[in-house]
Amino acid sequence: MSRILIEGGIPLSGVADVHGAKNAVLPILAATVLNEGVNVIHNCPNLRDVNITLEMLKYLGANVQREGDTLTIDTRGRLGNHIPEKLMRQLRSSIVFMGAILARNKRAKISAPGGCELGPRPIDLHIKALKELGVKIRETHGYIFCNGLGMEGKEIHLSFPSVGATENIMLAACLAKGKTIIQNVAKEPEIEDLAAYLNKMGAKISGAGTSRIVIDGVERLDAAEHRVMPDRIVATTYLCCAAVTGGSVEIRKVIPDHLSASLSCLRDCGCEIAVGRDWVKLKAPGRLHSVSDITTMPYPGFPTDAQSMFLAMLCTAEGTSIIKETIFESRFKLVEELVRMGADVTVDGRIAVVRGVPKLSGADVSAADLRGGAALVVAGLAAEGMTEVENPHFIDRGYEQLEETLTLLGAKIKRLLD
Ligand code: EPZ
Question: How far apart are CA 305 and CA 322, in angstroms?
Fold first, then answer.
């Protein structure tokens, strides 16, 4: 079983580039199903989750080629309606294939998605919205059968600005008759990136990035070329690695505006932050200050995907920090691992109280999900001595060459393959 070995206590320094955004490329790949052509998608990271999505596209009948960070997806010819459970269950984002396949074939047969164990991952908002678009949905034997022959545009109000549900509705509504208005949608940058790609294909989507999206259905869509936005959570992770080690780094190929909540928090911790068109420079203090209130919120609030890295980073800050996780039910699994490293953290429901200690000590710890695993790397970089992080496959879901990048920044980190 492979694991990541880290020798902590080295301040990071230097320059690192950020790869394309996992949470943008996944729905964009599903969106290629909406046209019958040859799509070229640039800045696609080589991640486990991306490769599983490509398996789904190939299973449907698409032809997939990768050359470096460019993917060519040929969706000409007949594509299937069905994705098998063994593929669907590997990935939460697989659920957006429901909207994509419905848009193309008007019928879909999929199973409930999988993904990281962050608590129940219901899809009630997806199902409710598609039914409002006129999709007939039957759930039986673990499969979801959808008949979208009667699909037409409607006004939909999401009770929660779900990222995945927003994406699913966008994909289904692009080729539905009439106008669809979605209120209280997710405003994440990944939604804007998906809308930009769909509009390049000929869709008529406006309002992405605001809480109201309007989609005028069209008859057909054509293949398009697109460059995926940078990964704002990977960028934030690199910054937390530098901040927790008292380092000084420049992180490039980012959109600073996407990082504003995290950058504000890093400044509150005592970091000096400079921002350019596509770069961020961070200079950390000798010891970070605590932050009295980090509350995760839908974008543009503090991102839930950055919460674990900040929690790990604040374990050695001066003072006590309070972290409230409002998006997912159980996103504090990493706490017991951090306590093994000497952290003083107590969890009460969705609130973690982090009392800063002068030092963490290296230990053998185990990743249980993607961002929790990345957070254990953050803690290992700060800790005295050696830390081994088991289950690095969780981290590989969202980080391309994490060890290589951190090594470039001066970290002593490597992967041990058994
Ligand atoms: C996306 O997940 C991201 N994943 C997550 O990133 C991210 O944490 C999340 O958005 C929030 O920003 C991808 O884009 C692949 P949601 P998603 O639907 O779409 C509840 C990472 O680490 N909900 O906005 O699943 C749900 O249970 C991953 O990269 C319902 O109750 O997020 C959760 O509590 C982790 N019913 C909350 O809403 C539904 O039908 C947010 O879910 C749908 C969601």
Answer: 16
For 116, list phi and psi in degrees, rounded to 5. Answer: -65, 150
Nearest 10 degrees: CA dihedral of 175, 181, 184, 185? 20
HSE value, Cβ hemisphere, 13 Å, CA-based, for 167: 30
* Global model pTM greater than 0.90: yes
Inter-residue contact 250 to 12 (CB < 8 Å): no
* Residue of 28, 95, 130, 160 to test ligand 1 pocket, by largest number of atoms within 8 Å of CB: 160
Backbone angles phi, psi at 81, to 5 degrees: -105, -5
Q: Is 130 in the pocket of ligand 1 (CB under 6 A)?
A: no
Residue 63 DSSP one-character state: E
pLDDT at 115 over 80: no
131 is written with which tokens? 């039914």
- CA neighbor of 409 nearest in space, from 195, 247, 210, 277: 247
Q: What is the mean pLDDT of the chain?
A: 96
Q: What pLDDT, in 10s, does the model give residues 376-417?
A: 999 999 999 999 999 999 999 999 999 999 999 999 999 998
Task: Report d(CA 389, CA 416) in Å as an integer.
Answer: 10
Cα of 261 to ligand 1 centre, how many Å? 18
Q: Does the beta carbon of 121 sit less than 6 angstroms from any atom of ligand 1?
A: yes
Report the alpha-carbon distance of residue 96 to residue 26 in Å, rounded: 9
pLDDT surpassing 70 at residue 372: yes
First and final CA of the chain: distance in angstroms? 5
How far apart are alpha carbons 140 and 375 in whole angstroms? 38
